[in-house]
Structure formats: structure tokens, C-alpha cells
Specification:
The chain is mainly β. Helices cover 4% and strands 48% of the residues.
């Protein structure tokens, strides 16, 4: 005698698989995060990654981020982000061009909900006199490197007129292209939309100093070098807690 399934709609978990969800619902919180942020000038060739409703900043600029998240409600993981500074509807945003993480929960949550083009990679923070991080995909094939020496710490204003306070929050306003392919052969995507997500970093420390990043160009499967490094702008080391909020802007279908 056959037995009918007993899973009901009201019993579904937040994410797949619905009876054993891989990741929880947002917002997402990160404690004691460390980010190395390399801002640099790039060129117009990066436009090939940006939807035609969006404009590159003038002049074109980009950022490469190496992040370590030792504690979050997605679990601990490391991440690499390459973003492009863009203008969308008259507002400056960071378009998420490439993202790499070290766990499946971080990858699935970012791709399925936020439209972040995440892949799994090997990310390592190296010991030494300078802050150095590398990303490989697959292991052994280096895709990018970042190195900096923190020298100048951004200090709170301790003048008599003001009470000492930590550095102001750093806000990253990400724009993503969320694409869900159709399960039907030779059909257009089921969903294509532009989404915004806001990352607020409550900084405990902010350092600047000399440094550089390199995109090796070793892989056409992960072509971060499509946003070439022409001239460094600033290198920052940021430590603090992060909150990732839900999208509060209506999505828009590009292309």
C-alpha cells in the first residue's frame, strides 16, 4: 500500500531543502569581521559585465575585497569580492561582478536570495609582516592577491567639544544581477532582475597604508582581469561588525 507524503506548505523551511534548510532567513549578522579593501582605477572594458541600464563611474573605478568572517549566522567563512563603481538611476552603487566564498551555505544564500554571482574557492590569509590574502580556483591556480601594510589608523575625534567615538559606519550599497535559468530547454531565463542589498559595517578599527592588488589573468573561467588594475587609489583594513539588510528597492528587469 502506497504512503502519501506528509510535508505540508506551512512546514516548509526557509531554503532548500525545505525539510533541512541550508541557510536561515535574513538579516545576516557578522561579528569581528576583517576586510581588506583595495580601490583602484580600471578601464571601460569592465562595461562588458554591467547591464545596459547601469553606467560605470566616470572615470571607471573598482574594488577588490578580501574578507574574513569568523562568526555569523551563516557560519564562519572567507570571501573575495570584486565590485565596480556604477551609477543606477542617478545613485552611486557597487555592482557585484565576482564573488567567491569558502562554504556552501554562504554561496547558496548569496546566489539564491541576493543575486550575488558566488562560487566556491580557496581563500587564504597569509602570516607575515604585511596583511596578505590570496584566492585560488581551483586550488593551486592563483586568481588574485592583495597585500597591504596598515600604517595610519583612523582615530576618533577627541577634541574638547566632542565625545570620543568609533569611526563612522562604512556602508556598501551593492547592486546585483539576479538570474535564474529556465528548466525548460531553449527557453529564456525564468527570472532576470536587478537587486540592491545594503552592508553596514560598524567599524571598530580602520587603517590605511601602502599596498597593492593583483589580478593574475590565469583563468578565463574566472576573468577578474576584465576589470584590470590601472592605478591604486586607496588600501584600507577595516574591522568591525556587519549587518546585511533585505533589499528595500523594487527590483527591475534589465536587458
Amino acid at each position: 500500500m502506497s504512503v502519501r507524503g506528509s510535508l505540508k506548505k506551512e512546514q516548509l523551511g526557509f531554503s532548500m531543502p525545505p525539510y533541512a534548510p541550508l541557510f536561515p532567513k535574513p538579516p545576516y549578522f557578522y561579528k569581528n569581521a576583517t576586510l581588506m579593501i583595495f580601490k583602484y582605477e580600471t578601464d571601460e572594458s569592465a562595461a562588458r559585465m554591467v547591464p545596459d541600464l547601469v553606467e560605470l563611474a566616470d572615470p571607471p573605478t573598482a574594488g577588490l575585497v578580501f574578507a574574513s568572517y569568523p562568526s555569523s549566522n551563516l557560519g564562519p567563512y572567507d570571501e573575495v569580492v570584486l565590485f565596480l563603481d556604477v551609477v543606477f538611476k542617478g545613485r552611486p552603487l557597487q555592482f557585484a561582478a565576482f564573488l567567491y566564498v569558502t562554504t556552501d551555505a554562504a554561496m547558496a544564500a548569496g546566489r539564491e536570495m541576493g543575486g550575488y554571482p558566488k562560487k566556491i574557492a580557496r581563500i587564504e590569509f597569509l602570516p607575515g609582516p604585511a596583511q596578505t590574502a590570496v584566492m585560488e580556483r581551483p586550488a593551486g591556480l592563483r586568481i588574485c592577491t592583495g597585500t597591504m601594510r596598515p600604517e595610519q589608523r583612523q582615530m576618533p575625534d577627541t577634541s574638547p567639544q566632542k565625545t570620543a567615538s568609533p569611526p563612522p559606519p562604512l556602508v556598501l550599497n551593492y547592486l546585483t544581477l539576479r538570474l535564474i535559468p529556465s528548466p525548460q530547454l531553449n527557453q529564456p531565463p525564468t527570472l532576470v532582475e536587478l537587486l540592491e542589498t545594503h552592508w553596514t559595517i560598524d567599524c571598530s578599527e580602520v587603517w590605511t597604508g601602502p599596498g597593492s592588488c593583483q589580478l593574475t589573468g590565469a583563468s578565463e573561467l574566472d576573468p577578474l582581469h576584465w576589470a584590470p588594475v590601472l592605478q591604486p587609489i586607496v588600501c584600507e583594513l577595516v574591522k568591525g561588525d556587519i549587518r546585511v539588510d533585505l533589499n528595500d528597492q523594487p527590483s527591475e528587469t534589465p536587458l
